[in-house]
Amino acid sequence: MFQFSVMPPLTLYAHVPWCVRKCPYCDFNSHELTTELPELQYIDALLADLEQDLPLVWGRAVQSVFIGGGTPSLLSPAALYRLLSGLRARLRVLPEAEITLEANPGTVEAGRFAEFHALGVNRLSIGVQSFHDDLLVRLGRIHGRQEAIKAAEAAHQVGFDNLNLDLMFGLPGQSELQGRDDVSLALSLTPAHISYYQLTLEPNTAFHHSPPVLPVEEYIETIQRQGQELLAKAGFAQYEISAYAQAGRQCRHNLNYWRFGDYLGIGAGAHAKITQAAEGRIERLWKKRHPREYLAAADKCDGRKFLRRHDAAFEFMLNALRLVDGFETELFSQHTGMSLNIVTAALQEAEQRGLIRWNQSRICPTAHGQNFLNDLLELFLDEA
């Protein structure tokens, strides 16, 4: 049994699983769209999915909504209106809630940005990855440099002042000059947030089965370091392993994940984590993964489990230690329902090994701990 003195914040994630073409590095639950998008049927399925989970969150306010994919900007404005209005009719979405929509730099999607903004989307996340056409081809992307630039400009023109750009480094054949140019050009487009992460070859992807030749690790570190220097010089503070933001523009939705908050997950393959304070439980749910199965099923849930003390302690650390500033010590008990004493031995060893800094009010990874995060997290595997 967990004992909660306060309820964690609650957010909502809605997954749209289709994209125009599956990128060879992508391990998300995304499927190439080979027929007409069944958007109205899918929106109805999302809302039915939500209604099944509502008893778990009665009366709780939703602090952010993130619509991800896949490529959710393939939805028409009418379908997005149906989704957002349906969410607000069923949940108490706070007026100041962060509403994020992921988008790709296609010209058709960019033409819809004004309508998305008018519907209440207040944060746009554009998957640029690179501004170099040769690198984009190697990544299997369907846009080019100019489309990416025009998409960011279009977002600003219609009123998006909270814009994220996704960038990747360590790409096949990427030069140091290209790495610098990608970050510099992204900064010139005045986003509020940049996600800057290394290409990795994930299992069950085309790149994993037929690996491209990647730069050597030392070369990748050089590209990363020069990008981080440019970001810092431009006033973008790193607050998570791959997230950089101007002051006050951190992604609130993702921060809730990293702080082990609660979240609803609707859509094919979506996951949820819900605290049930009265019962002293933390429940995880996941939805049917394939869109066809998800659409056909009356019960969208594919599985559920209650976390054990060990699970909750490890998952908290798995997420919170990704944050550069770590977490306030009281947050552990607030969001896990357990005393910090349950992981004291692991914390002491981590401190002795120089992986964390620990005082009465805060625990945060050192630079060494960030570089060896897996080693740090392994210390918590056998705790609790």
- CATH H-level superfamily of the largest domain: Aldolase class I
- Taking pLDDT < 50 over at least 5 consecutive residues as the criterion, the unreliable ranges are none
Number of helices: 16
Separation, N- and C-terminal Cα atoms:
13 Å
Q: Shape, please? A: globular
Placed side by side, the strands forming the largest sheet appear as: 9-10-8-7-6-5-4-1-11
Chain-averaged pLDDT:
95
CATH structural fold name of the largest domain: TIM Barrel
Q: What is the helix fraction of residues, given as a range?
A: 25-40%
Biggest sheet architecture: 9 strands, mixed
Number of E-type strands: 17
Q: Specify the CATH class of the largest domain.
A: Alpha Beta
Radius of gyration: 21 Å
Which labels suit this protein?
single chain; 384 residues; alpha/beta; TIM Barrel; Arc Repressor Mutant, subunit A; 2 domains; nine-stranded mixed sheet; three-stranded antiparallel sheet; globular
Describe the structure.
The chain is α/β, with parallel strands linked by helices. The chain has 2 domains: 10-255, Aldolase class I (TIM Barrel), CATH 3.20.20.70; 308-384, Orthogonal Bundle (Arc Repressor Mutant, subunit A), CATH 1.10.10.920. 38% of the residues lie in helices and 24% in strands. The protein has helices at 39-53, 77-90, 107-110, 113-118, 133-138, 145-157, 176-188, 206-209, 217-233, 252-258, 291-296, 309-320, 329-336, 344-352, 367-371, 373-378; strands at residues 10-16, 18-19, 31-32, 61-69, 92-103, 123-129, 163-169, 193-198, 237-240, 243-245, 262-266, 271-276, 281-287, 301-306, 327-328, 356-358, 362-365. A hairpin with a 3-residue loop joins strand 16 and strand 17. Helix 1 runs parallel beside helix 2.
